[in-house]
Amino acid sequence: MSGTSRWRKAAIPSDEEFRLETLRSIDLLDTPPDARFDRITRLAGRFFAVPIALITLVDSERQWFKSSVGLEIRETSRESSFCAHAVYNRKTLVVNDALTDDRFAENPLVVDEPRVRFYAGAPLVLKDGICIGALAVLDTRPRWFAASDVQLLEDLRDLAVSEIERQRSARGGRRTGRDRRA
Question: Which pTM value belongs to this model?
Fold first, then answer.
């Protein structure tokens, strides 16, 4: 794809500077695979019968995969990230068919490998309201999620957030006790 994007990239959250500071203070970016997170993505992939399941951390220029089932790459650009939309909105995002969604129809992850058609991502919102990424399941064919599917994805996301909070506590990561969103 040429230098100009013809899809809608996610807006930047109003708490972006603090969000990035929090993300980096947890010390998860660019770390080796971790069985705690890999179990969650394996469960998500199997339960939803999807070829790709991810725990993503959305950094300033990229989304990095703390855990990945079904993808060989470890990161993609933030500009093409579906998860960045879930981070911005702080709510679960379901895209039944990316080819029919103006935000994603010409996204490089849709038109090129891995040819994403379905996406569901539950944002990783920490106890203080900071959103650092998403637990996502993806498929190469359109799908539909029932309310019970969304609930299960959010339950699995809550397991991932618990592990992240443990990591944060172990690293002495800051907790503000309040939501820093504007």
Answer: 0.89
